[in-house]
Amino acid sequence: MGTYKPGAIGVVKGGIDTIVACKWKSIYVIKGKPTKSNKPPTMTQAQQRLRFAIVNAFLKRIAATITVGYQNPGKNLTPMNAASRYHLASAVTGVYPDYAIDYPKVQLTIPSDEVDNGWNIRIVPAAGGLLTLSWDNNPFVSGKTLPTDRIAILLYDVDKDRFINMGSIAARSELTNVIEMPESYVGDSVHVWTYFVSPDQKLVSPTNYLGLVKILS
Q1: Helix or strand or coil: residue 93?
Q2: What is the value of pTM for the model shown?
């Protein structure tokens, strides 16, 4: 793959023979068209393709969360690229072909020291489909941690194979929030993740995985 600068005829886009010209982010690139191979994939290739497919399918379902959590991914990376890179390397478990997402290792945000992730965060189920989320003030706060930061929560219902993105539900200063789950979720088990986000949604804390919790009747 190579790069080029638009000349007198302007921006070149599209394909010519085996060459494709396009724009990626702010860079104009030229690359060869992909060609199909009749060779069967090697075991390493098959493993990597399956791992990629599982991670890609998982992240697509939480794209809105990834957009916020990975909004500063580094040079020449999109939020989804950065999230894919991490989860491929660190959040796939199992032996080929029985791969799965390792939920405790899921990171909804790029770890940052700019916003604290709270202190002693816990979630406790109660009768009536209630989930009580609580946390303490971190005694070792960083300079950009504010009482107006919001705690955001993401749930994954194992039984329904469904994500529930509740967004930012409470200010850091509130120290608690009670979530009332719909009756149809009673009896289900949910994985729970939280993180804090600044009021302007430009800074995020590291992710907290709170475990697998059962919704009580």
Answers
A1: strand
A2: 0.82
